[in-house]
Amino acid sequence: MIKALFVSAVNPASEVERRYPDLGLGYIAGILREKFGSEIQLRIIDNDFDKVFKDYQPDFVGIRSVSQNYGQAKKIARVAYQAGVPVLMGGIHISALPHSLESSMALGCIGEGEETIVRLTELFLDKGQFPPEDLMKIPGLCFWDGDRLSLTSPRSPIANLDSIPLPARDLLRIRAHTYMFTSRGCPYRCRFCASSAYWGQPRFFSADYVVNEIGVLNETYKVNFVTFYDDMFIADIPRLKSIAEGLGRAGLLKKMKFSCSCSAPNVTVEVAQILKDMNVVSVAMGLESGSDRTLHYLKGKAFSVAKNRRAVEVLRKNGIHVNAGFVLGSPEETVDDMMETYRFIKETPVSLVDIYVLTPYPGTFIWEYALKRQLIGADIQWETLNINFDLNHHKAIVLSEALNRNELFAIYKRFRRLRLWRNLKNIWSHPYLIDLPKVALGTIKERVYQLFHSS
């Protein structure tokens, strides 16, 4: 038997990063259990790596990381490397930038990881290591062959998502409000998002698979509120209807509430009615801007302020709360454009609001734009990509050509005050009220940590 330790590289002080478990690693553990059973022992953690590593003594370590936490991932990898334990990297960062693989990391899994990790585990069980000549035969990898970084052929996306076992949630921290995925991929090409590059075209778990997973969450983990984190949850209307009907037949609509993410162009009267009937109580949408000029830059001509407004109104008429995210700081966005967004927020019945500053992430158009403007160098400190501009404004990468850093921060603070007022006013009637104590405590801890660790 071999032991594998999987680590979600998160900012230990960040409330939002530790709010929910890492289902990506849950899927990896789930398929390893199905394929290898008692041949492999598994553990998933997101903190206390040094202690767990010493006590658990794994045969290999897998690390999943986003770009802003890649510095943390590198620290973890070096501990394992110094102990002679091979490190497997995975996640969206290494998939977008395989050449950032550190010498302390044996290999990186590019893209979807379930089939790749099975092949790698078979290899390790057979040979007790990851020889380069064998790695070359496995699609979807980058790895070190001496001093040379090699990339294998791309791995095709998994066509039948129902073939993937349920995530191993018993290895994760599951609370009464948790999340799940019912699809992968996105057809849109938003300039700030790497989802389509990572996942490819949309693929869907079947309605039966989704209903069964929700039943397991309720019965095994006592979950009563599920958030669907899909990019395209509502895109396939017949499937959406089947999920709603399946939940009704299973008696789960009496036990569960739901929230989901969706794009405004996909919201129709019919969709809103289906969501209402399946007890969806809130919807999250990236509305991004109240200026068509900025919105078209960020998301393309398929999106418009009028469509955003109509989607919000249709959902609200069906008693569904709308949580909206907005992005400031596009390269050519002016103060007038930003104030159009400010007025949109004030005039539109969104329940909760999030405000972000445009941040370049690997795998996106915006990343390439920042490279061309030489805003990103080879010596980038990955934590500068922290999306929390409130804490990170002094070192964040500012893309705006119309405002300097201080001017953008001043406008951002004005939006944050509007957000605070809107959220305080509406949270008391919002279904997310159940999360408020945990979120508030985590946020306080985050600010205290930042206070004592800021440079």
Main traits of this protein?
seven-stranded mixed beta sheet; 455 residues; pyruvate-formate lyase- activating enzyme; 2 domains; 41% helix; six-stranded parallel beta sheet; alpha/beta; 17% strand; globular; Rossmann fold; single chain
Q: How would you describe what is shown here?
A:
- This protein has 455 residues and is an alpha/beta fold.
- It has 2 domains: 2-151, Rossmann fold (3-Layer(aba) Sandwich), CATH 3.40.50; 174-453, tm_1862 like domain (pyruvate-formate lyase- activating enzyme, Alpha-Beta Horseshoe).
- It contains 17 helices and 15 strands.
- It has helices spanning 23-36, 49-56, 70-82, 92-96, 114-127, 132-135, 195-199, 207-221, 237-249, 269-277, 292-299, 305-317, 335-347, 365-372, 389-392, 405-426, 436-453; strands at residues 2-9, 40-45, 60-65, 87-90, 107-109, 141-145, 148-151, 177-180, 183-184, 203-204, 225-228, 257-261, 280-288, 321-328, 352-357.
- The strands form 3 sheets. The protein has a 7-stranded mixed beta sheet, sandwiched between helices. The protein has a 6-stranded parallel beta sheet with strand order 8-11-12-13-14-15. It has a two-stranded antiparallel ribbon with strand order 9-10.
- α1 crosses α5 and α9 (237-249) packs parallel to α10.
- The longest helix has 22 residues, at 405-426.
- The chain is globular.
- The mean pLDDT is 93.
